[in-house]
Amino acid sequence: MNFSQEAAAWSCTSCGGELSLVKVGFTYMKGNFEVDLPACAECGLVLVPESLALGKMAEAERILEDK
Q1: Exposed (0-12), middle (13-18) or buried (19+): which is 46, by Cβ within 10 Å?
Q2: How far, in Å, CA of 19 to CA of 22, rounded?
Q3: pTM for this one?
Q4: Are 34 and 25 within 8 A, CB to CB?
Q5: How many domains does the chain have?
Q6: What is the tens place of the pLDDT at every residue in 11-63?
Q7: Domain hosting residue 43, numbered range
Q8: Distances (CA, A) of 67 to 43, 57, 60
Q9: Any idea what DSSP says for residue 30?
Q10: Is 47 buried (19+), middle (13-18) or exposed (0-12) by CB count in 10 A?
Q11: Which residues pair with 24 in a beta bridge?
């Protein structure tokens, strides 16, 4: 399932709004990253899918900490 499909399958737990893909900025150890993620169109709450949090983000964290 891609992030666009994931956005359509969820609604915001905070306000009940619909999710759509938005560019989200992350900062970690002086590194800045932008990722398209599902976020609430009403309140801006962002959904970080488990696959991303435990996969690519965890891998990037390990690489940055090893430097």
Answers
A1: middle
A2: 9
A3: 0.66
A4: yes
A5: 1
A6: 898 999 999 999 998 887 777 888 888 999 899 999 888 877 787 767 777 77
A7: 3-66
A8: 36, 16, 11
A9: T
A10: buried
A11: 35
Structure tokens, 45? 């709450």
What CA–CA distance (Å, rounded) separates 62 from 67? 9
Q: In sequence order, what DSSP letters do the residues of 11-29 get, joined into one string?
A: B-TTT-PBEEEEEEEEEET
User: How many C-beta neighbours within 10 Å does residue 40 have?
Assistant: 22
Task: Give the type of residue at 19.
Answer: L
CATH of the domain at 32: 3.10.20
Amino acid at position 12, single letter: C
Beta bridge partners of residue 38, listed in sequence order = 21
